[in-house]
Specification:
The chain is α/β, with parallel strands linked by helices. It contains 22 helices and 21 strands. It starts with 6 loop residues before the first helix and ends with a strand.
Amino acid sequence: MNIALTQHWKSHLELLDVAFQPIINIHTGKIYGVEALLRNFQDVGFKSIFSLFDTVYKEKLLYSFDLALREKAFKKYTQIKGYKNIKLFYNLDNRLFEMDNYSTGNTTELLKELNIRKENICFEISERQKIVNEHDLERVLQHYKSEDFSIAIDDFGVGHSGYKLFYDSTPDIIKIDRFFLQGLEKNMKKKLMVRNITHLAIQLGIKVIAEGIETKAEYLTCKDIGCHLAQGYFIQKPTKNTSEILLEYQNIIEIITNDRRYGDKNTLLIKNIEQIKPLTIKTKMNKVIEYFKKNKNAPIVPIVNAQNEPLGILLESDIKEFLYSPYGISLLLNEQSTSKLANLLHPCGNADINSTTDTLIELFANNPESVGIIMTKDGAYHGFLSARAIITLMHEENILQARDQNPLTKLPGNTIIEKQINSVCESDKSYMLCYFDLDNFKAFNDVYGFRNGDRIIQLFADILRKELAKNVFKAHIGGDDFFIAFEDIDINNYQKYLKEIYTILEKFASSAREFYSPKDRENGYIISKNRHDEQKSKFPLLSASASVLITRQQKEAVSEETINKILSSQKKVAKNEQKHLAISALI
């Protein structure tokens, strides 16, 4: 049953316009898609888009209105340069499915008229609106997916259904809401939540869009976490002018290049990637059988779409089940059967070739059933990292780290410290660096022996591990010298990081007292040889001093030598300060 729009709403449609906001590959800066956004709603008497749709809904014209609006958006989308290789994200109002005249097949007909591939369309379902009938919604979502349309969950994490919709609908894409991204780089709680959401999605073969990115810091943090795509004002604001939509965003590419230049070169990763030739989702089953007969040692084959984007994997074991059953081959080769390639597809996590090895290892470790990770380059299939390859990667990574670990404390040594300081020099993030030196350690060593001296060194290393978050860089320079680095600090709240350093100093001084004899503790000093001559002197009980350097965001270029010089020269100052701490800042 079709319900025609009134002339009143037809007039409104003529005044309404569509703006587009780009969605880009977070690792390359190249366009992936555009989101269609309604504009000029004020010109037809509405304060917001929501109030406009509420009115159409109350008049029971929502589906008819949406179809007309859909046509308007699709037509304008074809004006974008290179649109055939760009996805269009179109927002669906969940209440469409309540309309009496809702029917299927209308979008397919419209796309045929406009010569647009179904693969180019992604329908967004927002979590913000309450879903009245979840069973009906699931039915409609499955319909769109069966018709080769992509499905995205918008505003993920802030809506009514939360993970239930995520679980039930098995979307192709989720868009993490702006709430979680605002100030992400400074908020460990948000960072942990976004990381968990992203990694769960990746393990299920779902792409993740970081939506609403407004700063460079947010962009780079989302990229490091493993998000596939990015959208927001930092990239480009929505525009009604289709000529302003670019295929590549050079300002973003420059940021990515600079970030990658000094980051993990991923040589271990690259050499472990298997170049397994993928099959397309449209491959006939007889070709699939032929593939596994030719490649008898291949346990899986990656499956891609027409754009060479990974969709999942096909397991050899699934094909064997059919081959060894009485009617299996007939079912596989029967084009009318339900055993088409799409129905045999297994989800598989995918990550960009420029992802850090730490991110890949974490993804694999969090999913014990994983057979591997599909690797992409510029959003397209690049190769496969098998479970065995990832274990090899973990082993080689551990060997490299072990080579530079201090044998006593098992903390990173000088090579990794140099790499960390070099990254600080080249980064425009804000850091707090701290050089710790144990006071009166030589005197303690001379009196109580090297074994107890080693125990003191281990004590300080244990305090660093216990008091500092996992993401804080901790290292042992050697002897009684240690180094830590807080990355991406909130420069306006630097006192909270200093508080952690004060706590370390206080806990060490208190804990170290237990290594002295009762008499020495009571005296508050020990007698030992002076460093400069053979005369004996009084030495206070063990304490620690901290030389702190704050490097501000968007600082001028600074050398590793300058940082080391400042931290070293401040050590003497710190030892003479009442709280054993000296602070400087690079402006």
